[in-house]
Structures are given as structure tokens and as C-alpha cells.
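Lab channel / #folding
Pinned by the channel admin:
"Please post every new chain as: sequence first, then the C-alpha cells as a reply. Keep commentary short and put observations after the output so the thread stays searchable."

First post following the new format, from NK:
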Amino acid sequence: MILAASVVAAVLIGLVRGGDLRRLGQLPLQWTAVAVVAFGAQIYLIYFPEAVGQGIASPRVILLILSYLLLLAVAWKNRRLPGVWVMGIGFIANFAVMLLNGGYMPITPEALAQVGHSRNVQSLEMGARVMATKDIVLPRDMTVAWWLADVFVLPPPFPIPSVFSPGDALIAIGACWLLQAAMCHDDRNPQFSNKHGVSDGI
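Reply from TO:
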């Protein structure tokens, strides 16, 4: 949710600064098809999950690893574009904490309660999945590298109450930076010149 909010904010700020939305279509992103496959895999993990506790070698965790490796490959390929390296660090942070906690993003019961999402938990047991997310409920003292988990809370009266991780924050910052640079760039900027080309594949 924080990523969607940052994208909307970036576009609005870009328009206020005199940026042009049409320039987003000229972003010289490479390997976009690979990114689509990676995000598609993560959507599958959210809506068609395995039972919790299947182990590190489960098909779910293997798919998670592959999806993040693809995202990191895309970030590396586009690392010269503004903000992409920040997004790459965010991907690494999220990947690390999920891998260390069985392939799920830990979130505390208190954080869920603060944003009113306790009803989305499948059961009251620790380690239970939060529906339609990649989260599991874990108290801080049971979470490996808890500082990388969903620790930031935007409770009501924020319009869209949400919980997010440091990695999510970095991804949102990087995306905002990239969109701002794309909408408001100088046409002479070599990072956005046509010589890089736009590639939808490998």
C-alpha cells in the first residue's frame, strides 16, 4: 500500500512541478518483461499460499527466491536510472527478512490491531497467515531480524492505514525518485536519452 501511495504522490508532485506524464512512457527501462514475471510470481504467493511451516525447501520458498532474484537482476540492469539502486536495496531487505522467517514477512499482533486488520488473520495462533498478504503474525521476540520486518505503522486517521517494512519504504522512495526524474527530466540528461533504448525483454 505504501508503494501505491508513493506512486500517486510522485505523479501529483511531478505535475505540480511542471512535469509531463507522457515522459513516463519514455523511461528507458530494460527487462520489464522479467519484472512482470517476478511480480506475477509474488501475486501468486499472496493469493495461492501454501500452509505455513512447510520448510525452507518448500515450493513456495523456492518461488519466492526466484522472484526476488529476478527483481534484483532487473534492478541491476537498470541501476543507472535514478532511484533504482534504492529500490534494489529495498528488495534485498525484504528478501532477507522473509527468507530468515520461513518465506513470510513477519508482523506483530499489535501492529495488526493498530491498523484494524486483526480480522484478516486466519487464526489467533502465532505464525498464522494474514489473508491476501505475504505476512505471518509473529511477536518481535520470535522474529529473526525484526528491524527489517513490518515495523512501521500508519494508523487511523491516515486515509489508508497500513504497516510496512524498511524495505518497503526504500522501494517507495526509489520509485518516487524514478518517477520524479522521469517526469521532470531535462531532455539533455543522458540517463533518459534514446541511446539507452527501451527494452521489454532480455
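NK: The radius of gyration is 18 Å.
TO: also worth noting, The CA atoms of residues 87 and 171 lie 4 Å apart.
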